Amino acid sequence: MKTIHSILLASALAGFSAAEAASLGLTVKPERDTILKGGPRDTIIQIELKAPDSKVKRKTPLNLSLVLDRSGSMAGAKLEKAKQAASVAVDQLSSEDIFSLVIYDNEASVLIPPRKVEDKEQLKRQIATIETGGSTALYAGVEKGAAQLRKYLDSAKVNRVILLSDGLANVGPSSPGDLSKLGQELRKEGLSVSTVGLGDDYNEDLMTALAESAQANYYYVKDAEKLPEIFVEELGTVQSIAARNVSLKISLPDGVKPRGVLGEDELTFQGQSITIPLAEFSSSQARRFLISCEAPTGDDDEIALARVELTYDDAEGRPVSENQTAQVRQSEDKVAVEKSIQAEVVSQTAITRNRLAKEEAVRLADAGRPKEAAQVLISQASANAALPAIAQSQLLLDEDAELKQKAEELENSGNLSKGSRKAIQYQNYQDKKQKR
């Protein structure tokens, strides 16, 4: 079975992009088609957006700044693979793309100022000259990379920083809050930052905070050998934009009580509605939101739960809008209610609850409470086992096995290893962004 990485790698190398289709797919689906009259009113509405696969060989122009860590910890194979990955990135660019490269250790400096990619061999020769230095001024590196993008900032291009680091930020601002704020500020300018954490010694909380606030991608690369593949995957994604300025508005009728967006604490309802800005969508990208609400009481056979409005600009810059509604029937027939279950929605809800359980377990483990952390994971696995058989997807079964394995690690060793913590955080990020 092909992995997501191998599929994306093959697509990127083939030069595919997402200009083929003029719309995003929108699917709105409650967890049950029928609810029990007089029974529980809490329900989940799944809203899914998906960009189609593309077979048109056209790329979105790119304004790219690579920001590479050359601190002392990068010495040896790590730096050599980072330079190889940067050269692979250059090979993926066209003469219409803008490229720059920033290196950082104690401070950040521009090795290659922004320019059109007209002489790839010269760029690769400059990349080959990079040598290791001292500490890790990560924040300054991102700022310097963003400054290069501003020189050719163009709303028709994808303006992206790709940050690579293998260590802890120890010069300048270095907290997840600092980097999250920076990511938000850059996003407002139309810039985004994808982050690549290499090895087991970088701060994954910081790297995820920056990528998420900038609405970009985060990668955990345990083995430096994988770096070139990761860079190809990232470029294949950013060069295949299917939609921009994506916005999702969810409105609940009077009488329907909003509970929130499951697993998305930063998204909150304002009264009866919520608007979710989503920036760009690339080819094959999907995003899923689980709206938790309480249906109103009453005798109506049909109950409207939500109206969903999607707006965006397609690959040609044309405005597109689509509306859908979510509704359920009421019945006194318990068998009909049970048969109306939507297995995919129940399974995805469980996977989201798995993510929340893992986040809580990490928090408890960090606080020196490993037994409680293990119990959170075991309890979630038990809750999954109680789900209807129809909702037991292979992914959910695999996750249950992982929950139990991490619980055992916590019980036996009293903590999570660096690698386990990073693997959990990376998987959680992938789950939240629907990348697996």
Index terms:
436 residues; alpha/beta; Immunoglobulin-like; Rossmann fold; 6-stranded mixed beta sheet; 5-stranded mixed beta sheet; 12 helices; 38% helix; disordered N terminus
Describe this structure in words.
The chain is an alpha/beta fold and 436 residues long. The protein has three domains: 19-44 and 242-332, Immunoglobulin-like, CATH 2.60.40; 62-239, Rossmann fold (3-Layer(aba) Sandwich); 344-432, no CATH class. It is built from twelve helices and 15 strands. Strands 6-5-4-7-8-9 form a six-stranded mixed β-sheet, with helices on both faces. Strand 7, helix 5 and strand 8 (192-198) form a beta-alpha-beta unit. Mean pLDDT is 90; it is low at 1-22.
CATH superfamily of the largest domain: von Willebrand factor, type A domain
- Average pLDDT works out at 90
Strand order of the largest sheet: 6-5-4-7-8-9
Tell how many strands the DSSP assignment holds. Answer: 15
What would a concise description of this structure say?
With 436 residues, the protein is an alpha/beta fold. It has helices spanning 4-14, 77-92, 120-128, 138-150, 176-188, 204-213, 227-238, 334-339, 343-366, 370-385, 394-413, 418-432; strands at 25-30, 34-36, 42-50, 62-69, 98-104, 108-116, 158-165, 192-198, 218-221, 241-251, 257-261, 273-282, 286-294, 302-314, 319-331.
What are the SSEs and their pairings?
Blueprint: H1 4-14, E1 25-30, E2 34-36, E3 42-50, E4 62-69, H2 77-92, E5 98-104, E6 108-116, H3 120-128, H4 138-150, E7 158-165, H5 176-188, E8 192-198, H6 204-213, E9 218-221, H7 227-238, E10 241-251, E11 257-261, E12 273-282, E13 286-294, E14 302-314, E15 319-331, H8 334-339, H9 343-366, H10 370-385, H11 394-413, H12 418-432
Helix pairs in contact: 1-7, 2-3, 2-7, 5-6, 9-10, 9-11, 9-12, 10-11
